[in-house]
Every structure is written in C-alpha cells, then in structure tokens.
Amino acid sequence: MIEVQQARIRVVGVVQGIGFRPFIYSQAAKRQLTGYVLNTGNSAVNIVVEGPKAKIIEFIEAIEQEKPALAVIDSITTSWHAAAGAFSEFKIRVSQDESQAGGSIIPADIAICEECLNDISNPESRHHNYPFTCCAICGPRYTTIVDTPYDRERTTMNEFPRWTDCSREYNDPHYRRYNAQTICCPKCGPSFRLLDKKGRVVETDDVFVRTVELLNRGAIIAVKGLGGIHLAVRANMELQVRRLRRLRQKPTKPLAIMSPDMASIREYAVVPPGAEQLLTSWRRPVVVLPKREPFPLASSLAPDLDTIGVMLPYSGINRLLFEGLDDLALVMTSANPSGLPTEIHATTFQERFMQMADYLLTHNRTIYQRCDDSVVIPVNGHGLIVRRSRGYTPEPIETTYPGPPVLAVGAREKNTGAIYDGTRIFLTQHIGDIDGADTLGFLQSSLVHLRKLLRVKAFSAIACDLHPDFLTTRFAEELANSDQVSLVRVQHHHAHLAALLADGRLPPNERIVAICSDGAGYGADQTIWGGEILAGDASGYERRAHLRAHPMPGGDLAAEYPLRMLIGILAEHYSADELEHQLALLARTQLPRKERELRVAVQQVAKRINAPLTSSTGRILDAVSALLGVCGHRLYEGEPAIKLEAYANKGQSNPAIKFSIPVTEDHDQLIMETGDLLLQVWHQRHRFKGPDIALALHRALGEALAHVAITIARQDGIRKVGFTGGVAYNHILTQTIRDLIQSNGLELLLHNYVPPGDAGTSAGQALVARAQLAT
User: Fold this and answer.
1) What is the CATH number for 213?
2) What residues have CB less than 8 Å from 5, skipping those under 6 apart?
3) Position 96 confidence tier, pLDDT thresholds 50, 70, 90
4) Is 730 one of the annotated active-site residues of the chain?
5) pTM for this one?
6) Of the listed 8, 10, 21, 129, which one is catalytic?
7) Cystine design at 425: which of 193, 397, 517, 693 (Cβ 3.0–4.6 Å)?
C-alpha cells in the first residue's frame, strides 16, 4: 500500500519575485501532488503538499536541484505529518503576512530577459515596442516594492489594474508571466510622454521613435527609467558630450555609456576575461573596461583615462533608445547635480534641473526606491564592486555569525547603510557623499525602508564612524539616544578590516593582517590615517605599521590641489626658500594663485598652521600625480590617483629605475618612509620617461606594503593577509601585492561582494558592533 503523507516545507533565500511559485506549482503538478504554496511576509515561501512520500521526497529534491536560475536557497526545512485529505489539487495561494524575522528577501531589480526582448521586437505581440514589458523572471523589483510579501498590491504597479489578457497570463501557471507582479501591456500599464524644455508635450505617434530622432540630431534627453532619471546623448558627438559636461558642471569625471550589444562594445573597448560575464549578467552593472585605441567615441567621455565605464541595456526603455540610433553607444549618466541623490520625480526635475536637458522622456509609474547603476571593476580575473546598487540591492552578504539586529550608518563618502539581521548583512543601495540634508535624508529613508522589509522591530546597537563631525555620526548618536541602545564608534580602517572578514565569511574572531589603503580615515590618535597595516579581528585591532605621516598644508585643500601635498612631503628635505624655487614652475600651472599660494603653503608647513598630518596612501599618489604633471586639480574623488594609474599603464618596466621605501621603527610600529620615496622620484623625474617612473612608483609602494604585511603576519603566526580601502581598486598595486603575498605562501583576501572603498564600511561597522555586543 502506498504511504500517503503531508509535508510542510519552508524555503528561505531569494525565492520571491523570480517565478519560484510557478516553478513549485509545475513540480507539484508533475507528480500529482496536492496542497498549496504561498509567499510569506518575511519573503520566505511556505509549501504544504500531500501525496506518496516517495513523490514528496522527489519533489523536495527537485526544489534544490532544478530551482529557477535566479533563485538562491539558503535553507529548506521539512516537517512530516499525517495526510489530512483536505486538498483536491495543488494551488498557489494569496500571500500570507507573517511578521517573524529570519526569513529571506525579495531580489534586486532584474535585467529584461531575452524572451521579453523578443516580445518587444515582435510586431505580432501585444508587447511590441512596449518599454515596460517583463515576466516572472525579469523586470523591476526593489525599486517598486512598498512592502512585503511581494505581491502587486504592495508595489507601485498597484496603480495600474491589469487588462484582460494580462490577467489571464497572470493567473495561469502555464504562462511565463504567471504571478509576474509588474506584468502590464500598452492597454493597462504605465505610459510615456516626451516633454520639451518648457514642459510642453511633444505630439508624436511614437515617443521613442521621436526621441531617437532627437538623439541622432544631438539632443540631450533626460530619461526617467526604473530607478531614477538619466541624461542621454550620443557618445560619438564630442561637442554635445562637452555640452552635457558644462550643463552638469562635472568637467572631467568619467561618464558611463550604454551600448546595445557586445559587438558594439568591442568596437571601442577591450573585454578582458570575466568582463563579458559581468556585462551580460542579470545584474547589468556598469563595467569599467580598457579603451580600444584609437578610441572611436568622444575623447571627453573619460578624459586622460585609459578606461571607460560600459553597460548593456537592462530594460525595455533602454533597448528602445537604440532602435535606429546612429551610434555605437549613448552616454547614460545620472541626472543629478553633485551632492544630491539621483532624481526620481519628473516634476522635480522639470522645476529644478531642466536646464541640463533639451527634452524629458518620462512615464507615470512611481519609483519607490531610487537606485543608481552599479559599477564594477574587473581586477585580476574577478570584479571589485565600486558602487553596489541596482542589481545588487537588497541581496544580503552572508556571514557565519548569528546575533541580534544591528544598524550601521557608514562613513561619509560614497556611503551606504547596513542592517545586520540574523547571519546576513543587508546593504542599502548607493547613497553618495553624506554632505547635506538631501543625502542624509536619502540614507535615513533607505534604512527605514530596508528595516520595514526585514521586519526588524528593534536594534541592539547602532554603529558609526569614529569621526565626530560626520553627519552620519550625529545621526547615529541621535538614533542611539532616542532608541536607548548602545552606540558603537568604529575606527574607519578597522571597519575596512571587518568588511574583509564579512566578505570572506570568516569568523569574526579570526585574526588577519589587513593592508588598509585609502584617501582618509579619522585615526584613533586624531590624525588622518590612510596607509595602515592592521592586525586584528572584528572585536579589536592593533595598528602595526603605516606610511609616514606628512603635513597637508591647507588641510582639505591639499586633497583638491595635490601640489600642496607634495610641498608637505618635500618640506622634510628642503628649506622654505629651496621649495619655493624648486616648485615655482609647477605652482604656475597647478595652484590658483600660483607662486603666492606656494609661499603660503610652504609657510603653513614650516609654522604648522592648518597643516594636519596624514598617512594616506591616496595623498602619496596625489603628490606624485602633481609632481609628474598628470593632475594638478582634483575635480572628482580620487582623480589624481586614478589618472596616475592610467599614466603608469602606458609605462614599461625599466630596471634602471630603482625606487625603494626604507622602513623604520617607532614605538613598536613599522614606518614606511614615503618621504624618501618622493625624494627619489623628485631626483629621477628628468632622467626617465614619466609613465615609466609612475609604473616603478606603484610597484615600489605595493612591494613595501606587501613586505611589511608579510613581516607582521609571520611575527603573529597569521596566514591571511587582506588588501582593502579605495586604493584596492588600483590594478598595479593589487597585482604587486597579490604576487608577493601568494609567493610567500600566505592567503590573500580581496573583496568580492562588499565594496573595498568607503561604500563597504557600513558592513564592517555592523560586524564590529555585533562582535562587541558578544563580548
């Protein structure tokens, strides 16, 4: 006699919004099982099935082995019961609003699939040329979700009742649009309008055909997409790209571009191993690729850089912009002035920012959560995330360390917030630099929304940066005070170290050596750190080595005008008169007030007036950039160092150039004497080619960092050495450090899922706070 039983199954992971319930339905129907499946409010999936036990076991195995491509299953729990005989068939039930924590989440926005693209291209399809076409396995998710469980009535598509054909497909498990929450067509979905500069509707039979015509003529079009508004212009029109830069007031920052396919990308960029997989993945990030020379697009897209940020279309909106376009690519950059979040409201854009565009292509669907394009740099065979946003948020970082909920607010630049719930760290989308009320408000609202989706009732601790003047620190202080929970202040580079632990799923008490290299971080001694080698774990650290701290005449002005940093370093070796004489020529081209400003900066160092000390790796690279005439005025974060790397990539190894960094000891700390390195570059600057010097400088710096880290690891019996911080995006330094660490038999830790730069510090802060709660 066949044994009939009931199994109650709970599936936790990324299992909502990706066609998981239709998959479960088909597997159950295939085995003639009865029961039901439903989404839960904490974004898990509950299943009840009845039938022969052998068939149920087979069904459970199929869930694990044949799951949809986008599904991520963290756990499947099953309890067995006597069959109740209460079901005559298998059904997909209305979602259940559970409030318990510890479940999974909805997925990030998913790029449009090939089948939906085919529908858009097919004149016989009702989705022909319809930009919001999607199905159960593609389309917007996080940007539309108001609450969980993920059903249409809790998304911004609730404003658009389904038409008859859409309802039929939505309710029929045999269609690929079954339970596709954002399903729509021209008869029932959002619609587009094209507006001119004065807000008047441009009358046309097809707004996309008209938009492409305008793009072909050189117009700058603001395009409301899925997660924000972009500015689009043809990428091979030099004058128009320069015009866009003037209107955006971003004269040199590289602009991201979009191409319709890989063949177009290969016309102007080199696609290294692994990069195509990143470009064509369902995440569709911007991928930073080497330029192909001669570069056929506008030179002002990425001035003085040897790379270009590229992405493929991720929505029907994007795809229709290339129908009939006379170009390989479109500039596709966020339509927000510096210091403000990406704009999502068409009316606000018209009122405040319409001067940046000639036309606005807009639609009437609400963007509930703004989400910038993610940015990834392929480094040595894998991708380092620069900006973690669309396609990644709110996918969690999995750890092995359970505990009470913790909130982290990040630092200041390129910021994200984080919620550590259970064993997972959830990062917000990219927020940006927290310098004012707009971005701080964006951070606050993003954390509130994430907390709501995760059903977190209370936090046990709030984590922030050690810097007392950051707006994020003040926000954390207020929140901890109002919630009456612990405030954990985390040193900036300790957060970077902890982010490596979280990224690698290492135990929080595992000691590692971390090379922490970036532009600036508030140190425990109240100086500016940025070239640190720490030994420690999530609960604590020791600063075992660092670059020599040099004065920054003018404070932050030394970051904006890197010649000032060079003055601070060379002041250790030259008198004031000698400095003024030696640097006069560079001052005339790099400082706004030329020799007069040079004299003031020299005196600031000599008298220690507004000349704070910094051990920053970024500032060393900036100083060399100024010395070699590569970049004398920083107009975007990291510009001098980024351009110096591009300059070094043109260089060749020259054995005659022998740079080295002496290492001294002071109070049990190893000091890398970078002043000596700069002096060597100063003396050799006229003997060798500039790019060769830049290449040798990078390698000498990487070798020094690696050798000192190896020394510390051996002293402490540590087997893992990590490289983190914003400088970890540098290919040359990463490769140099990798080769030395691995050749010495140690394991190198690099980032995979958490950004190495400041966008990842919130993850590290959260882990440190969780570890301190446990002590």
Assistant:
1) 3.90.870.10
2) 50, 51, 52, 53, 56, 80, 81, 82, 83
3) low
4) no
5) 0.92
6) 21
7) 397
